[in-house]
Design brief:
GO biological process, one term: bacterial-type flagellum-dependent swarming motility
Family: Belongs to the flagella basal body rod proteins family.
InterPro entries: Flag_bb_rod_N, Flagellar_FlgE/F/G, Flg_bb/hook_C_dom, FlgE/F/G-like, LlgE_F_G-like_D1
Number of strands: 19
GO cellular component, one term: bacterial-type flagellum basal body
Distance between the termini: 23 Å
Shape: elongated
Number of domains: 2
Structural class: alpha+beta
Organism: Priestia filamentosa
Number of helices: 2
Length: 273
């Protein structure tokens, strides 16, 4: 069996997953607060090949000698998908229930990757995190996401309002009729790789994220009447997608060449006259 057959097959499977990643990014190019996935593609460990052959020595004795053939790459694979939490562009909506998070001072986390800020929402008995600030006012007068999850303020309290006439300061203080209603709590993650994607722009984590309020090491702003766009670069994504397709086709042609070689070896070389 040709070893390159497996290398080409692993390359095809890797690029298939890569295309799926890029397709998902492109499909969410207009999704509020969406963070694109980046791929970590790695190669399997290389194998160092040697061969043993016999050479003539003194008195024509055969001496086994080890000869270095070289390294053999055993293919590639997609190790993981890592969301990129770079800031997306801002879009003005003039709706009081729309808010956008703007990153300020963000310290670096693991492997030099910057952390990120999140709104905190209540999903049943659990807490989730999101960058989607496309909020609404529920029938019972609470600030919620469009999916009906309560937006939480400091100390896990809900934001209760009477109507859409309210103001939110850059630090998240909510006032209505000149009365302070509460402060929208903002969580901060210094290790975004620990976040698990839940779908619909929601993230979960095993250990609850700390609040960014009062943390002198970070800074952020909340812009009312604005939304954060997706951070997907459509032009770059299309370019990467075309490159992935070409790589897939190249590996496919390699497999076809090996298939023809194996067919010839089985039907012609191995034929007994």
């Amino acid at each position: 069996m040709f070893k390159g057959f497996y290398s080409a097959a692993s390359g095809m499977m890797t690029q298939q997953r890569n295309v799926e990643r890029l397709t998902n990014n492109m499909a969410n190019v207009n999704t509020v607060g969406f963070k694109q996935d980046e791929a970590s593609i790695r190669s399997f460990p290389e194998i160092l090949l040697d061969r043993v052959q016999h050479e003539k020595g003194i008195d024509n004795h055969q001496i086994p000698v080890r000869k270095r053939i070289g390294s053999l790459n055993t293919g590639a694979y997609m190790q993981e998908l890592i969301p990129s939490f770079t800031q997306g562009g801002l879009q003005s909506t003039d709706r009081s229930t729309d808010v956008a998070l703007v990153d300020g001072k963000v310290p670096e986390g693991k492997a030099g990757q910057k952390g990120s800020f999140f709104f905190i929402v209540e999903q049943g008995d659990e807490v989730r995190y999101t960058r989607n600030g496309n909020f609404a006012l529920s029938n019972d007068g609470y600030l919620t996401t469009n999916d009906g999850y309560y937006v939480l303020g400091q100390n896990g309290t809900r934001i209760s309002l009477t109507d859409n006439n309210f103001e939110i300061s850059e630090q998240g203080v909510v006032t209505q009729n000149e009365e302070v209603i509460g402060t929208i709590d903002i969580a901060f993650s210094n290790n975004v790789e620990d976040l698990n994607q839940e779908g619909n722009g929601l993230y979960s984590v095993e250990t609850p994220l700390p609040s960014a309020i009062g943390n002198a090491a970070v800074s952020y702003k909340i812009n009312q009447g604005m939304l954060e766009n997706s951070n997907v670069d459509s032009s770059q994504t299309m370019t990467e997608m075309m490159s992935a397709y070409r790589s897939f086709e190249a590996n496919q042609k390699v497999m076809q060449a090996y298939d023809k070689s194996m067919e010839k070896a089985a039907n012609e070389v191995g034929r007994i006259s």
